[in-house]
Every structure is written in structure tokens, then in C-alpha cells.
Amino acid sequence: MNTHWFRRSWTVALLVAGSLAAAPRTAREMERHSVAFPEWTVPPEFRRDVFTFARIEYSSPFGGGYYYGSPRWAIDAPDSDLNLSYRLQQMTSLRVDPEGRIFKLTDSELWDHPFIYIVEPGGLQFSEDEVKALRTFLLNGGFLMVDDFWGEREWENFYAEIKRVFPDREPEELSMDHPIFHCVFDLGQDKQALQVPNVYTGIRSQRTGVTWERDGRDLSIRGIYDDRGRLMVVICHNTDNGDGWEREGENEYYFRTFSEKRAYPLGINVVFYAMTH
């Protein structure tokens, strides 16, 4: 898998995005929450041709709000990013960067990494530079996965922000017949069965049956397409795949029910689809 083609839009992006942000970081530099990170290596001859899970640090006031001391853009990191990366390395033909990266949308190095991930967008507010940079990134072949926000209020906030990026494009609910749900794992036809709660709600669901937060009962997975019909954004609303990746080792029931059967299969499918289309 060669991602060097993506650099061709680098100069244009810099003109659009404005001044460069601080140097990107790796996920392994962040404080970890689990006992240990998964470890793996990539042969030296493949280091320039790996998939890198790239998380976006967005510039909303206070990082879009704080949750347990972390800015919302950083929720579930670094464990979620590294755990999913490890599973991709294990279970697909992709060679995967063992470090993970964190970028701002205006970072020049972002253009080496076609897949980006935004979490907890219910309170984000893009700057004008971020709006322009994200639009240019996506229309030049990039792919965005959005995850972990719940309820109507958070949807309305994200919808307003993504419409600043694409005023003329509407998020569309993805049919379960879409190949993204079947490209590695066959996820069936019941979208609601893919809902992933946070770990505490998930453990309690053994007796309550509740797998949602606030008014976010119904899982929605929407997409945005470019003019050629390429799926360039996947929006996972009323679900928390990131917790499914991050908290896999904390409870056997949560792992077997939500991480193993829902969060990892969907995450792997989304990444694999993005990198092969």
C-alpha cells in the first residue's frame, strides 16, 4: 500500500490551510490507561508503506470540552488507537504503524496519511483554517471516520460544523448493503446490533438491556460522498467504538459482547474499505 500519491496536494493544502501547527506527536507518547500497550514491529523495508492511525486534535475552545481531565479530542487515546492498530496488523493484510499519530488539520504531515479519526465531536467548533483544510484533504482523496457522540444536541452541533465544510453535501444514512459492512467482516443486516456503549453502560447492560446514552437510543452510521461517488466520510453517531477498542481488557463480558463482535469488526472494516477504495 503506497500512500505517497497523497503528497501531490500538499502545496495546495498549505496555501489553503494557513500557518502550520506544532509538530505532530505519536500515540505512544501519550499517557496510557491500560496495563500495557500492544507491541509489534514493521520490517524496515516497509516503514514508508504502512497504514497509520491518525487522530485529529481539533482546536475548539478547551478542546471541545473536558471529560475526566482530557480534552474531548483525546478521549480513549492512546489505548484505542494502538489497540485497533494492533488488531489491523493481526487480522488484515495491512502493515500498520505501531506508533499512531496525532495531527492538527493544518499540519503539513497530515497529507502523508489518508485516514483520519475525529472523536467526541458533539462540542467541536472548527476554525476557518480547519474548515478549509478538512475540505481540501477530503476532496483530494482523504477519508474521515467520526465516532463517539450521542443524542440530538451533539448531532446538531456536529451537523452544523460539517455543513461548514461541505455546504452542498448532505450526510446520508448508509444501507447495511453497503460494502463497508462486509469487506472484511460480514456485519449482517441489523445496524442496531452494532451499537457499542461505554464500558460502564456495557457492563450494566447485562441486567438493564440499555446500550445507549442520553437520548441516543438508535445507532446511525452516515456517509458523505464526493462528486465521483467515493465515500469520504463515515459518521458513527449514538455509539462508542473508541471505548470498545480502548477498554477491551477491563471486563470479559464487555470484550466478548462489544469489543470483539462490534467495535473491532466495524473499525477494521472502515479502515480496510477506506484504504482500498
Structural notes for this entry:
This protein has seven helices and ten strands. The chain has one domain: Domain of unknown function DUF4159 (Rossmann fold, 3-Layer(aba) Sandwich), CATH 3.40.50. The chain is globular, with a radius of gyration of 18 Å. Mean pLDDT is 88; it is low at 1-24. The protein has helices at 10-17, 79-91, 128-139, 151-165, 199-208, 241-246, 252-276, and strands at residues 25-26, 54-56, 66-67, 70-71, 101-103, 115-119, 143-147, 172-173, 220-225, 231-237. 44% of the residues are buried. It has 277 residues and is α/β, with parallel strands linked by helices. The strands form two sheets. The chain has an eight-stranded mixed beta sheet. A two-stranded antiparallel sheet has the order 3-4. The chain starts with 9 loop residues before the first helix and ends with a helix.
Q: How is the secondary structure organized here?
A:
Blueprint: H1 10-17, E1 25-26, E2 54-56, E3 66-67, E4 70-71, H2 79-91, E5 101-103, E6 115-119, H3 128-139, E7 143-147, H4 151-165, E8 172-173, H5 199-208, E9 220-225, E10 231-237, H6 241-246, H7 252-276
Helix pairs in contact: 1-3, 3-4
